[in-house]
Each structure stands twice: as C-alpha cells, then as structure tokens.
Amino acid sequence: ETGVTQSPTHLIKTRGQQVTLRCSSQSGHNTVSWYQQALGQGPQFIFQYYREEENGRGNFPPRFSGLQFPNYSSELNVNALELDDSALYLCASSFWGGGTDTQYFGPGTRLTVL
Amino acid sequence: QQPVQSPQAVILREGEDAVINCSSSKALYSVHWYRQKHGEAPVFLMILLKGGEQKGHEKISASFNEKKQQSSLYLTASQLSYSGTYFCGTELGRGKLIFGQGTELSVKP
Lengths: 114, 109
Hints:
The structure holds two protein chains of two kinds.
Chain A: E1 5-7, E2 10-13, E3 19-24, E4 31-37, E5 44-50, E6 53-57, E7 64-68, E8 74-78, E9 87-94, E10 104-105, E11 109-113
Parallel strand pairs in A: 2-11
Antiparallel strand pairs in A: 1-3, 3-8, 4-5, 4-9, 5-6, 7-8, 9-10, 9-11
Chain B: E1 4-6, E2 9-13, E3 18-23, E4 30-36, E5 43-49, E6 54-56, E7 61-65, E8 70-75, E9 84-93, E10 96-99, E11 103-108
Parallel strand pairs in B: 2-11
Antiparallel strand pairs in B: 1-3, 3-8, 4-5, 4-9, 5-6, 7-8, 9-10, 9-11
C-alpha cells in the first residue's frame, strides 16, 4: 500500500461529456503526476503539479487540465471526452526536495467512454 | 524518446533467472523500474541514478550503463510472485517519466 488513493475506481461516460478524477497524495508528499495508461501500454505522462502549479506537461491537448490543492491532493479534468480517452488514469505522488524523486502510484481510475 | 525494452515477454519456471533490458536514444539521468500486476497499479522497484547510486526496497538488482544509455533488471531465483509486467521509466525532465512498452514476465510452477 502506497498511501495514494484515487476516486472513483471506475467511471463510464459518453462522448462529449466531462469528467473529474481525484487523487490524494501520500502524507508528506508535495508533487502529483498524472498518467494515462491504455490497455497493453506503458503509462503516458499527462502533467505534473508541484506546490499547486503545473510543472510540466506531456503531449496531451488542453482539454486535459488539472489542479492541485493546498493539501497536495489533485484533480484531473477532461472535457469533451473522446472514445480514445478510455484508459486507466494513474496518479503518482512524490516528495521533491531536489534531485530525483520516487513516484508512488495510486490504484487508478478506469475510465470508459462510450 | 520512449525507451525500448527487451524482451517483450518471457516465461520462466520457478527458480530460474531473467534479465530485462531498457535502452534509450537520449542521455539518461536516471532509470526507474516498476512492476505492474494485471488490474493493479505499478509498484516501485528501484531507481538507478547517474553516478551509480541505487535506491530500491526489494531483493532485485539492476545495472545502469550511462555510456550505452542502458539499464538492466536482474531477477534471480524467480518466484511466482514475480509475475507481472515490468516497466522502465526514464526522466524527460524533473519527475516526468517516460515509460517503455513493458516486458511481460510469467513465472510458472
């Protein structure tokens, strides 16, 4: 158990809808990264939040957005859902104090877009 | 930019050894190794840092060849619990991991 939690566990949406996924980071961690994992693929980096600011973004369109709150928990919002957005969404929390940080993943949210 | 892992899949008998390789076309600062079981989150195994420092918490060893931009994960005396998909991740920038396509490891009794 990493102490990273995500909600909901599963979600079914239809094309064009919007979705919000939530992540609670491990105690003592100040950074949250979000990843999208399609079936049979490795996780793909979406973006990272550090001290409530976006700290880098992968190759994802602006309809993927996020927030980090003062308690370091985070949200991932996806607007105008497309069929290809169906995937496992993972958040990973870490403590960054300089150097390389170890990321600990939550159990993920399985999103299905119909 | 995505690291390349080999082999794509491997089947072992309990007690056998395996090596999983991870190669990058870009200079590596660090390599992160994870194991993911079906339907579960990736679990951290080890970080290898430029300069030779290793950080991990399981009885798994790894190497990091900075010149060749490669890392290898060594699984010795495999157990049934080692089954899963192994991913290597390389840092694109601070904390931004780019993962390989994964190596599926099956350990049979």
